[in-house]
Amino acid sequence: MRASAPSYERAAGRRVSLQDSYRDISRLLQLAYPGEDSKFTQCKGNDSFIASLNDSSLVYEILKRDPPSLQEAANYARGQERETN
Predict the structure, then answer these.
(1) How far is CA 67 from CA 2, 12, 16, 34, in A?
(2) What is the DSSP letter of 33?
(3) Least C-beta-crowded within 10 Å: which of 35, 48, 60, 66?
(4) Which residue from 3, 42, 40, 2 is spatially nearest to 22, judged by alpha carbons?
(5) How far apart are CA 23 and CA 14, in angstroms?
(6) Each residue of 29-43: b (16+ CB within 10 Å) or e?
(7) How many CB atoms lie within 10 A of CB 58?
(8) Cα–Cα distance between 81 and 2 in angstroms, integer?
(9) pTM
């Protein structure tokens, strides 16, 4: 059996990939703060992405790196996912 990829669970309990999580959070940020790409929105994106993960060791590794953007946090998480699979 293959190891499961890090993911998050939506309120309905459905598991979602890291890429889908990143896309959903990016889309919601754009809807909530149209045209804005500030430290505030990046911080909100990072916090939301990290909170969505169900892998505490991955969360710890991302927090240690202190990525400046949602994209960098997601890229790091996907890199870790590839290394573990």
Answers:
(1) 29, 29, 22, 22
(2) S
(3) 35
(4) 42
(5) 16
(6) beeeeeeeeeeebbe
(7) 18
(8) 12
(9) 0.76
Specify the DSSP element, H or E, that contains 69: none
User: Hey, how many other C-beta atoms are within 10 angstroms of the C-beta on 55?
Assistant: 19
Per-residue confidence (pLDDT) for residue 35, from 0 to 100: 87
> Quick one: 82 exposed, middle or buried, by C-beta within 10 A (0-12, 13-18, 19+)?
exposed
Contacts of 41 (CB under 8 A, 6+ apart): 29, 33
Cα distance from N-terminal residue to C-terminal residue, the chain = 11
Residues (pLDDT < 50) of the chain are 1-8
